[in-house]
Structure formats: C-alpha cells, structure tokens
Amino acid sequence: MTPSVNVVEALPWIEDADKVAPKDARALSRLFLDRLPSLEEGTAEYQYVRNTLIEMNLSLVRFTARRFRNRGSGDMEDVVQVGTIGLIKAIDRFDLTREVEFTSFAIPYIAGEIKRFFRDTTWAVHVPRRLQELRVDIAKGKESLTTALGHSPTPKELAAHLCLTEDEVVEGLLAANGYVAGSIDTPSGESEAGAGGPTYADTMGDADPALELFEDLHALGPLLRRLDERERTIIEMRFGQELTQAEIGRELNVSQMQVSRLLGRILAKLRTGLLDA
Question: Which residues, at least 6 apart from 186, have a Cβ–Cβ distance to it below 8 Å?
Fold first, then answer.
C-alpha cells in the first residue's frame, strides 16, 4: 500500500498497517523505531508510532506461531495473542544502535513468550474450554463444602451446590484427570512400583531432532534454487563444506570482508523469503 499524509514529522500515515507487505514493513519499521524513543509516552504521536509498529509486524508473530501449531491444546488465536506480547516487548526494548535487524531481535522475544504460555497453561491432554472452567468451579465447590460438611462432598452434593446436574459434575470430575499427566516413570502393565520392572518411558521412542531440520530444509529448498550460481556456491562452501570466510575468499579470489558482505546479503534474501512464505 502507499502511505500518505504526515501525522508525525518525517513519518508516513499508514491506514491499514497490518496489510503492509513484509518487505515494506521492514523498511518502514526502521523509520518508526528510529522515531519512537524521541516521543513522549502517552501522547497521540507515541501511540500512533508504537501501535503502527505492532500492526506492521504481526506477520512475525504469525510466522513464529506456526512453529507451535502442533504443540499442546492452545488455540492458534491464543498463541498469536501471546506472541504479540513478545512483539511489544521487543519493540519497547529494541535499540537501532546495535545494528541488528529488528526481525532477528523480535523473533526470540515472540517465541519465548509463546513457550512460556505453553509451559504455564497447557493441559496434559486436550480438554474443551467449558470443562476447563468447570474444573475450577468444582474445585472451589469442593473446598467450600468440605469445610461446611466436614467431609469430601459427593457428586450429588456438588451438583446441588453449583446448581448443576449430577451428570455435569461427573463429567467435570473426569475432565479434571486431564489437567495433570501421570509420570512416564510409572511401572507399566502389571509391574509394581520399586520392583525394577519396565516403565512407560521404556516403551517410548525418542524425538527425532532431524524432523525440525527437515522442515526447515524443505522450506529453504525453493529459495535456494532461486539463488544464482555464485550465491549457491558460497552457501555450499560455508554451510556444506564448512569453510571459513577466509578460506572461501581464497577460493573465490576475494577478500574476507567481501565474503562476509556477500553472505550477509544472501542470508538476508533467504530470511526474507521464509518470512514472506
């Protein structure tokens, strides 16, 4: 889209920031990040610049969130919202003088916030939100009735206390079993605890670290094919043959500084391709 009308000196007015293409967002973000520290918090100008930065870079949140699409039971909408918190922290803490690309700085903040979300809130198995909330109500009701009755309440007593049917209470009690998983070190089958028999962990396979690498390489494949012959040669020498920049320079008859700049340009091109995918 084409920005118009200056609302803050030297900055464009962007009507729909979340629709800005990732390539344009990166260029515009540098302008907005450069201006943000000079504005007073709470002013309309500060809110415009900060909110525009957030909206323009939501593609980074969605890109990072997709890496967690198969983890836990969190809805993708919730994951994106949590990731946006990480994006906001990155915007507030970014320093242009460090000469680091904002995308490289922001993605670890976004991923860290999402990982924290799964660590703190994910249930052991998928349970509908309605039953998750019911578990909380039942736990509170149990505590209240135990004190009042002097014994642990029956499902019928809980149902009367919570104005629910007995079947609904039983369903909530069963769902609560999904909140905490049993230990994989529990003896399996008919083995007894402490007997030295096989545990459930003994029957589980290990995670294959090559799976994530395969996914990354699969996404990079088409991008690598778009590079010219010289660029592919440099990538092969650096990451395939694991040559140093100095060794690559000698092979290509260029300086190490030129190799460093070439690598930086090639990697930036690949990174852009992944973010635009």
Answer: 193, 199, 200
